[in-house]
Amino acid sequence: MPGPYYAALPARPLERDVRVHHPDHAFRELVTLNDPALVVMTDLRRMMPVTIDPDASLEGAMRRMKQRGVRLLLVLDEQGTVVGLITSTDLEGEKPMRHIHQHGGRRQDILVRDIMTPQQMLDTLCMDDVVNAKVGQVVATLQRVRRQHALVVERNGEGEQVVRGIFSASQIARQLAAEIQTADVVKTFSEIKELLDDRVAAKR
Q1: Which of 53, 66, 114, 141 lies 20 to 30 Å from 88, alpha-carbon distance?
Q2: Which domain holds residue 94?
Q3: Distance of alpha carbon 71 from its chain centroid, rounded?
Q4: Is the whole model's pTM more than 0.85, yes or no?
């Protein structure tokens, strides 16, 4: 049985002096604390997560981050199960040196599994709660749990928990930049809190 017929769309040459369309103001990269939390969540229904194997090297993880332009990788095992996550802070911070101090060896011997945040230590938020939440609530939550990232989970048709989205401190900070009124990129939620507290005090 033949499939449905799809008529081709008319194709025309590109005109001269054409510019690229800029986003409408309706889609705001910059947000306020009162905006819906979903505007600062990386929705994994809309984009594939960048992942890595737990037995990959640190150099391999850094290379993958640079190639894909991200600062976080979900660590998946052979079955596609989330076993942890690793960030650029993990790679560039003290974790590799601490591992060498405790276990010996060289940096090139360290694997992703050695310094990643393991599954049992990851904080998650329920998608049902996130749908009705504000950006400010996400900021407050990550301040409370003292994390730079949080995974958003939901249940699939079989009742299994799946990762639906990711909140990132650095991404939220960039999107809050206009409200915070600072030229510097805020990288931690403690800095966000200080800036917001200063702004409130200035209004009094």
Answers
A1: 141
A2: 37-203
A3: 8
A4: no
